[in-house]
Amino acid sequence: HAAGEVASAKPYPFAWRVGECALVMVDWQRDFCDDGGFGASLGNDVTSLRRAIPAASRVLAAARKAGMPVIHTLEAHAPDLSDCPPAKKARCPAIGEIVVGGIEGSRVLVAGEPGNALVPELAAAEGEVVIRKPGKGAFFGTDLHTRLESLGVKSLLFTGVTTEVCVQTTMREANDRGYECLLVEDATESYFPEFKAATLAMITAQNGIVGWTASAADVVAAMK
Ligand code: C5J
């Protein structure tokens, strides 16, 4: 019995079964969305990411109403950076540091710091899982796959930032573990519009080599 079907999804309709679909909210953390965070420290304009928050919020509300499991992820390192490979730190020197003009004196991409909190609009509700991940993908170094398996989840809906980095990496990891994945087009953003466009195109190319995409409005309608 198909509980949800998004007929308008690209490259062809996407459907999931009752109780077998979860929503994954990828890295909606202040580090990426607020001035002074990791994203800003790399010279990016964070206002582009905030554009996707309203659509992500509508998808989140609909998933909660439908009783769908919701999983939030955070790119978050241990305070001693023991889970941050030196190669990552070398290319992103701000990690673990307190940057000038940063978020409330917080250390960049470190668990428990103010900048590592979810943006208030998309905060986790009581009982929702928040996965801290040391990498770009949410399956590497986490118990996400085990959690999804224990819930009987086979299909995943995604919102999050940034489209071509943590969202796409997580979708590819999910694919390799057998999940069917749909990315909500207007509930994801990148600092680089051309990278977002290219990611949406490459996900759905070749008969959905990575998965499906669809608008928030159509996904929300399918959750009712
Ligand atoms: C990045 C992410 N862009 N969450 N992280 O470094 O996409």
UniProtKB/TrEMBL annotation:
Signal peptide positions on this chain: none
Transmembrane segments: none
Domain (Isochorismatase-like): residue spans on this chain: 21-210
Family: Belongs to the isochorismatase family.
Protein name: Cysteine hydrolase
